[in-house]
Amino acid sequence: MSKVLLNNKTVLVTGAAGFIGSYLCKKLLESVNDVKIIGLDSITDYYDVSLKEERLKMLKSLNKDFTFIKGDISDRKTVDSVFAEYKPSVVVNLAAQAGVRYSITNPEAYIQSNMIGFFNILEACRANPVEHLVYASSSSVYGSNKKVPYSTEDKVDNPVSLYAATKKSNELFAHAYSKLYKIPSTGLRFFTVYGPMGRPDMAYFKFTNKLVKGEPIQIYNMGDMYRDFTYVDDIVTGIVNVMQKTPEETEDGAPYKVYNIGNNKPSSLMNFVEILENCLTKEGIISEPGKKELLPMQSGDVYQTYADVTELERDFGFKPSTSLEDGLSKFAAWYKTYYKK
């Protein structure tokens, strides 16, 4: 592993108006000396655009060296022109069409953004050599694997959703480009990220919206599901650590690596809902627990996620550790100020 110094560098963050992307930009702008951040995002209306605008407003209010470009990574000309003009040293690709269930009804969006878009990023890194390419993968690549915790050594050849298949393909694309063109590439398999200013399509956010309206919340697989919920600050700390070290070459000569970033502590969905309700009650957002509607498992969903983060801890001396109580209380406090103005 060789070090990558971020001071005085230009870093391209795609998906900069997204949940993780905006937090990453903020962290880099506040903690790295003289870093120049180029944020690229297409601001799709997959979920409430005003939330994306709020994140960008937050980034601009820092009065740091942040340049925002509205553009789509699936448009080759846009990507090439950004690389040509700004010549980034480090690229963090977080732009993607997210969501498992949406991939069943809108598959084309995933091919455009997650496959063609990522291909365009790889081609641009080949034409304009970068010190390090870091990109988002997902815990969904593990599919219905029975062995837990999920290790990056495990086989991931059986995705149960198109979303998962596109993320696995990103890892394969990155490995090929890494080997052929010596592009140092690190993929990060994120595990169920949550927190303030998060994605409204995520379960905890949907639950909150329904609880506020007094509507029943829908819990799949009769509540018998487990998720490795990971607080957004832990995810971002992980990304920043990874950005600063390029991977060692694999046996086939590719400077390539994949890590899990998860809380390493799965919670049952019912326990998660209980903690969420407690946090919302403490903030005065709801006055009592809501009704639960228990439903069967949905297509594309998995029974559990559970990250083995041994390698992350070994290589970076860090693993996510924020408790659900802490993370969800921060989410509840933000929700109260944002929606109850």
Question: How would you explain this protein's 3D organization?
Answer:
The strands form four sheets. This protein has a seven-stranded parallel sheet with strand order 3-2-1-4-5-6-11, with helices on both faces. It has a two-stranded parallel ribbon with strand order 7-10. It has a two-stranded parallel ribbon with strand order 8-13. It has a domain at 10-194 and 230-263 and 306-320: NAD(P)-binding Rossmann-like Domain (Rossmann fold), CATH 3.40.50. Helix 1 (19-31) runs parallel beside helix 2, helix 1 (19-31) crosses helix 8 (232-243) and helix 7 crosses helix 9. It is globular, with a radius of gyration of 19 Å. It has helices at 19-31, 49-60, 76-86, 102-105, 107-127, 162-181, 203-213, 232-243, 269-282, 310-316, 324-339; strands at residues 10-14, 36-41, 66-70, 90-93, 132-138, 185-190, 193-194, 217-219, 226-227, 230-231, 256-261, 267-268, 292-294. It has 341 residues and is an alpha/beta fold. The chain is built from eleven helices and 13 strands. It is 41% helix and 16% strand.
